[in-house]
Predict the structure of Serine hydroxymethyltransferase.
Amino acid sequence: MYTHTLKQFDPTILASIKKEQQRQEEGLEMIPSENFVSPAVLEALGSVLTNKYSEGYVGKRYYGGCEFIDEVEQLAIDRAKQLFGAEHVNVQPLSGAPANIAVYFALLKPGDTVLGMDLSHGGHLTHGHPVTAMAKIFNFVRYKTNKEGKIDLDNLRQMALEHKPKMILVGYSAYSREIDYAAIKKIADEVGALTMADIAHIAGLIAGGQMDNPVPLFDVVSTTTHKTLRGPRGGMIMCQQIHAAAIDKSVFPGLQGGPHENNIAAKAVAFKEALEPEFKDYAAQIKKNAKILENVFREKGYTLCHGGTDNHLLLIDVTNKGLAGKQAQIALDKAGITVNKNMIPDDPRSPMDPSGIRLGTPAITTRGMKEAEMEQIATWIDEVITNWNNDEKLDAIRWQVKDLTKKFPLYPTLV
Ligand code: DSN
């Protein structure tokens, strides 16, 4: 029988875990794609389900002993269907990138054209950036936002008429506005294209009824489960029934082997949490908090890309403040505020040294922070950016940040 614990057997790893937990507890986590899962989700993730192989799908496995695994995976599927109104759900994708790749291989042939958003305008690497393997297999044509920072639907339609894509792809990683799914669907129908939405960033806002839901309208919708949806690190694909067999075949055996059932159990737990009425309040608060940040930053003369926010994130061009995104990220880190440097649309600088920062409210909202805290946090961010090369000032803010986080503890105990 196993008896050794992490503390006894591997104190080195335990020490690193403890330090990371302390970092999470004592800092303000404002990377918009990050969040804090509940202890119940952590429990499922750390369960013995990790021991089991279960290639195949519910009721059709290649291995024996899958009766309880089937219960878990079916629950995850049923809850996701209820949450998003999906006809078919595949909960096995290991993360967002493999989910997107599985969709492409399910619905496209090599050489087919896809219209996807340019990375610097808010798109994602897996939406056809030239450095990805997918861009070597499929023909991605990239659309952009207009001068006001919104998706240029007229231009998108012109591009669709010109390029005759097999698929139009929406859903973004650094775009802060609502998406007009009906208008995109109309353009797709005009040119006979399939519709795909990658809702990784905003899945929790959709589940909480705070943003429009493309699932009933679009052919296929991919997502991660660990961002605003607040589940474990993982992916998921939802689609219309006509695409179900192709999607399932593409995930397994097309792309993946044994599903990570401990992770699927944790997804099921997170979906149950998202079905609770309180999750709607959480999703609404994420947006309210982002709006407060937007208002303070606007008052203080920051350049807000996309003109502001309708969701959980803000993309800010900091160059008019005398520094670039990388310097802002480093200075904010020193003050205990975690954001990421990010490209702005058609950034004249480089991806490793871009003009902007991207920040968001999902994780700090999970801690229970509301409007008053947002005012304070936005003020600190401005002070950090203004004093980005004054370590003494940054250290002073770090202490204030630590004091604030003590009032909003995350987990009952340290590891
Ligand atoms: N890395 C994720 C993000 O930060 O948006 C997307 O894959």
